[in-house]
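Collaborator request log, item 7. Partner lab (contact: R.S.) asked for a structural prediction of RNA polymerase sigma factor to inform their binding assays.
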Amino acid sequence: MIQRICRLYCQDADDRKDLFQEIVLQLWRAYPRYEPRAKLSTWLYRIALNVAISSLRRRTRAAGTDELNDEVLNVAQAPQSGYDEEEIEALYKAIERLSDVEKAFVLLYLEEHTYEEMADILGITQNNVRVKMHRIQEKLRHLFSVIQ
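Returned to partner:
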């Protein structure tokens, strides 16, 4: 799970290693505050995503540009047949244009988490997840049509 998050938020292998170490360090520091009433995986995801998003923001501010990640969907399973390479590439490019938080939603969706699980991981309500997922889908449809 941590490896997938690192691949989503870092193109460079060295940056992925640094992010992985930073996430593990934050998990270690936060462990004394872990409360078993929440699922461990939910707690891990929340910390890992927060660290990854913060790290990406720091890197992009330092570089002065937006980092677009060519490997956004490597966390997903291979696409089903019926899609040609151009459509798949257009989808990758559309996802690259999403915000950091929207990418986190896409990652959780592609890993087939329920809205309830997504809400727990992200610390928001299920209704908020539904609304945000709907908006992300609309945004992706628009971006996909523009890119194609």
